[in-house]
Amino acid sequence: MKFTAQQIAEILQGDIVGNPDVEVSKLSKIEEGTQGSLTFLSNPKYTQYIYSTKASATIVNKSFVPENEIDTTLIKVEDAYAAFSKLLEYYNMVKLNKTGVEQPSFISESAKYGDNIYIGAFSYLGENVTLGNNVKVFANSYIGDNVTIGENSVVFSGAKIYSDTIIGDSCVINSGVIIGADGFGFAPQENGSYKKIPQIGNVILEDNVDVGAGTTIDRATMGSTIIRKGVKLDNQIQIAHNVEIGENTVIAAQTGVAGSTKVGNNCLIGGQVGIAGHITIGNNVKIQAQSGIARNVKDDEVLQGSPALPITDYNKSYVHFKNLPKIVKNINDLEKINGNS
Asked: Which residues are catalytically annotated?
């Protein structure tokens, strides 16, 4: 699909400097721009590339004034980064604008769905499934019995959503996600074996939740595993049974949250963090990558290490830790001196 610089400027409410009729059909980084591509400049470190880029059009801040001759048509806006992000959203919306039901696919007779939906080939919709308006379920996805998915949500190829899951509006479920598998519950027996504890709860995702590829969210033993509105989960995260993740919390890849832990609102949790079960993490907490959390955490704490310490204590301790060989040598030398005196 092609757009002129003028059409893009109208979408972004920007001004044209150059040829308004130049056409673009793809997006590029400014240093990799080619004819027919659209790029942007917001970081001053990349200013040098605007004089050499082959991109046909470039989004820039209104304050930008070229110091040398340029070949690219400029689209001047208040905030180039925000404008380009808006354009990416628009591009993504156009790219994913599929509708209809592809065959072969299976949709139960009791399933209900709204207007403008898309069901990709080889998808399965079980009994009493409900899909809101504008929901898109891409190929090879499984939607189990009694699942509800709210308006404008997207389920990408190969996702598996087990029975009784409730997904809100404007959620994104990426490929390979599994929502609602059994929680890890086993009771030890006298003979040393383990007996499975039935997991009869469900999973609830509120509105505007993003779940990254390969992430798993287990159903509750009883009640619900709950992901509150605005939560963003990266790829390959494990959320165990009866966990609750608070509003607008962001969790990076390969983090694991054990059963029945409650994570507060607006937390930032780095990659490969391990969080023990049955603890409470407060609001606005920041946890650095590869930390291990085994205790309750108060609001606004910033933690690092395993077991995690307040980050200032960790940094002070690390100074001594990295000098430990030298410190041990000094102690040994002192002992030798004292032993010879």
From this structure: 241
